Amino acid sequence: MASKAVTIENLNPNIIKLEYAVRGPLVIRAGEIEKELEKGAKKPFKTVIKANIGDAHAMGQTPITFIRQVIACVTYPDLIKNSNFPADVKQRAKDILKACGGGSVGSYSMSQGIELVRRHVAEYIEKRDGHPARWQDICLSTGASTAIKNVLQMLCNKIDGKPSGVMIPIPQYPLYSASLAEYGLEQVRYYLDEERDWGLDVAELTRALKQADKTCKVRALVVINPGNPTGQVLTRANIEAIVKFAHENGLLLLADEVYQKNVYAPGSEFFSFKKVMREMGEPYSSELELASFMSVSKGYVGESGLRGGWMELVNLQPEVQAQLYKCISAMLCPTTLGQTAVDCVAKEPAQGEESYEVWSREKAAVLASLAERATMIAETFNSMQGFKCNVVQGAMYAFPRIELPEKAIAAAKAEGKAPDVFYAFRLLEETGICIVPGSGFGQRPGTYHFRTTILPQPALLRHMLDSFKTFHQNFTKQYS
């Protein structure tokens, strides 16, 4: 028999190096446990709680009515004539269909997205920032993830014989480490300051940059605000310092702002990097290269499966932007239903329109509930011995630090696992709670963390936290 054309020995080594913790071995095991429960297996719990990923609807969040009605109408246009949906829903569906080839969402759109939707996104950004936005600089995407990867791909090049490097926060969202591994880009890690609510210190950026300069050419800086997995919201002063740093060092700034609607803590406020950069004036406003990202998977919407998102490009060379758009065109276009959801987020029902009252009530209820759960999760972990959890200022996650007994660390090493991975597997097997170990995001050596979402509905979240507390007490007792 002829040998296989593709073997583990000749596979692209970047793929082998790639890891994506939020869908890693723990999640695979959680899926297996779910099947075991379905077949009647006896466990000390009745259901698996997937607190590993920011999937709001999977955790019981109700879809926003306006969005689902518009999607229903564009998918089955007979509803525009024959349903009792609100007039503004029908008009929105008509407008979107008119902008589609053949009047159907089954047709391809332009590779950068439907022009009408891109114009509405530009209007959203102008309203948010108080500064102009060009619709031509808006590119719709399959969630924010695809747009982020498209921008990172532009950096796959050696400069003066050195590989290109990208600065990413630690802890970070594993999309970044996975994509850098996939593209053969160098990962330049800068640590967020846990003692200062996961703040971003420019001195730490400088340290990371100087250290990396020996082995690679650093070309870009990633900032996640509000933070994932850490839940912090950067202050305006902090953003100004980051803008200055990126400009001084000639870096492309990637601003991951997909949680911009998720801000809960009193005194915290979201400022877009573009707004701050523009208001800082020259030379930053016209020179700093910026790509910012937004998604309908998060916020009050939580439409993760529809895969709608966008990026705005600011101050890129026109020739570079044209090449990026050319690259994106090879993927044809983002899903038109995702683009429809983007349109509903970018152009929300206006006061006086028929859908406004329901939409406004539903949006406020989701965000108020998330704020309540953000407080509940931090307060509960901080009340438990061996845990320290910063205030969840924004986003959808908590990233508590956990103390593990020396015997537990030794037991983990005996099994060939990182201590936080060992802990997370035990938690899953004994409680059905699926979290992501901190090592999947990066953490300071000698510290152990985990990421959990705040998405389980209040009653389930309370049950989850009670189970967590009992488990940790038993775990600590066993290994002390």
Question: What report would you give on this structure?
Answer:
The chain has 480 residues and is an alpha/beta fold. It has two domains: 13-60 and 365-479, Aspartate Aminotransferase, domain 1; 98-346, Aspartate Aminotransferase, domain 2 (3-Layer(aba) Sandwich), CATH 3.40.640. The protein contains 18 helices and 14 strands. It has helices spanning 13-17, 25-38, 65-75, 78-82, 87-98, 115-129, 143-153, 174-183, 202-212, 236-248, 273-280, 284-287, 318-329, 336-346, 356-383, 406-414, 419-431, 458-479, and strands spanning 49-50, 138-142, 164-170, 186-191, 217-224, 252-256, 290-295, 308-314, 387-388, 397-398, 401-402, 433-434, 436-437, 450-453. The strands form four sheets. A seven-stranded mixed sheet has the order 2-8-7-6-5-3-4, sandwiched between helices. Helix 7 (143-153) runs parallel beside helix 8 (174-183), helix 10 crosses helix 11 and helix 15 packs parallel to helix 18. The longest helix is centred in the last third of the chain and has 28 residues, at 356-383. The radius of gyration is 23 Å and the shape is globular. The mean pLDDT is 88.
